Automatic annotation (TrEMBL):
Residues 1-23 are annotated as: Disordered. Residues 74-137 form the NAD(P)-binding domain. PANTHER family: UDP-ARABINOSE 4-EPIMERASE 4-RELATED, UDP-GLUCOSE 4-EPIMERASE. It comes from Brassica napus. It comes from the Eukaryota. This is NAD(P)-binding domain-containing protein.
Length: 145
């Protein structure tokens, strides 16, 4: 059947729709409050256990202790060519060195060579960190040094 405007009118079907004819309706999800609270409590307990077991949180690092006559130097980008050579010179001159690098341009092999040359505890420390991240810098300056 056509109407006066030339558009075909649709015929209404009086039969009920079968499940195949209906659009998908998402089922209502229950709010599982008890499950969420249980998960939160278990994560908090796990965090406390990890913090209590970690020795770095309870005892000070060798690098955080102050020694008379020993200068502690922070070398950023110390895994690169210039930084690794600067760290080598500082280590030869009896400085305590902490290298911070995210290895975007540096080479971990340079740090390993320095660690083999100076195996004494408390002489050389390498920290993989990005100085572009303010939270990482805050943790580095607060907890490591």
């Amino acid at each position: 059947m056509t109407s006066l405007s030339g558009v075909r009118s649709q015929r209404k079907n009086s039969r009920p729709l079968s499940p195949g004819d209906m659009d998908y309706i998402e089922p209502k999800t229950k709010s599982n409050l008890m499950g969420k609270l249980l998960l939160l409590a278990s994560l908090i307990i796990l965090a406390f256990i990890v913090i209590n077991k970690a020795s770095s949180f309870t005892s000070p690092s060798v690098f955080s202790r102050r020694e008379e006559g020993v200068t502690h130097v922070l070398v950023t980008g110390g895994a690169g060519y210039i930084g690794s050579h600067a760290a080598l010179r500082l280590l030869k001159d009896k400085y305590r060195v902490t290298i911070v690098d995210n290895l975007s341009r540096g080479n971990l092999g340079a740090v390993k060579v320095l660690q083999r040359l100076f195996p004494q505890t408390g002489r050389l420390q390498f920290i993989y960190s990005d100085l572009g991240d303010p939270a990482a810098v805050w943790c580095l300056l607060t907890f490591e040094a």
